[in-house]
Amino acid sequence: MSTATKPLAGIKVLDISRVLAGPWCGQMLADMGADVIKVERPVSGDDTRHWGPPWLSGSSESAYYLCANRGKRSVTVDMATAEGQALIKQLAAQSDVLLENFKVGGLKRYGLDYASLKTLNPRLIYCSITGFGQESPYAHRAGYDFMIQAMGGIMSLTGKPDHEPGGGPVKSGVAFTDIFTGLYAANAVLAALYQRRDSNVGCHIDMALMDVQVGVLANQALNYLTSGHVPERMGNAHPNIVPYQAFATADGHMIVAVGNDEQFKRFCHVIDQPNLPLDARFATNGARVKHREELLPAIAAALATQKTDTWLTAFENVGVPCGPINTLDRVFDDPHVKARGLKQTLPHHQAGQVDLVANPIRINGESISAPTAPPSLGEHTHQVLDELGITREQRHALRQAGII
């Protein structure tokens, strides 16, 4: 899909955020066709540029930085200086959206807060991403994904129970809260752009990591709010569905995800336990949840008798959801992942090329992923400032002064 035909073609985004939640939002908007200008500190840039190893061979780019900055243009500006602030204000005056994740009130001293910038550009959609939002008893606190996973409840639900070997709270293997916040922020920006078509007026979007973490507790939040019972860690088991977890096989592990009673009957036929669905304790999902401790040993014993691939083939033949537990090398070698083009290889001016994970959104059969690699630090500074009307001589003076 060409950039010119993408949904956000013609939209300009000024991304002054760092690390993950804000840049993830910016990358999503870039994939959708927006011109995303990433403003970074001279010399050091985004913190994640230094979060390695691993590094992209032939370059100074960290893998962490590469995961969230495809399709953007990088400009280096020192916003602590009056000249740098003036440049960012010029960019903001010409932008549709601004993304930032500074501490609450942190940009006011630079004149880059929403109240200041909306006087320059009333149509600006200004998206703030913080740990706890603009109005909270914790508004002054910094917010980090790991900390928010703990405070927001997900770690109380992830991991084995305390009484089991290896029991205890566990964080997600990726920055779960940051990524969800970036996705929610992108959705909010899209809604604001849609609303602005009629009002011609921008708005201030207030995104908080803590709010998002609570918001994505989903069924577990409602399990608590509905029953008053505090959910506990269950390892790979599901609080509302049985059998729906990982099981050991003769040569490894697999997951079984039985979603209804008919699937359970077919599952039991495959594992040669046809009488289980006839038992009132196991005939319905509600009964199976209540009597999981009596049911699971019989299932575990049956599954341990055959190899994973044998079970996968047998269950797939009768429509019982199941799957292997893949390491990442197997993920990217999977026929589905290859067929859907989820590994994207783009030209990179330092390394020659870079492998990225493509955006999973497809429109009319095409991935929307931006066609340009994450930029090197300051790669587009002169190009963007030239578009602002800053002359070559002025740019040279700014660079000599360390402002860009």
TrEMBL record:
InterPro entries: CoA-transferase_III_domain, CoA-Trfase_fam_III, CoA-Trfase_III_dom3_sf, CoA-Trfase_III_dom_1_sf. One of its GO terms (molecular function) is CoA-transferase activity. Keywords: Transferase. The keyword Endoplasmic reticulum does not apply. Pfam families: CoA_transf_3 (PF02515). The keyword Transferase applies. This is CoA transferase.
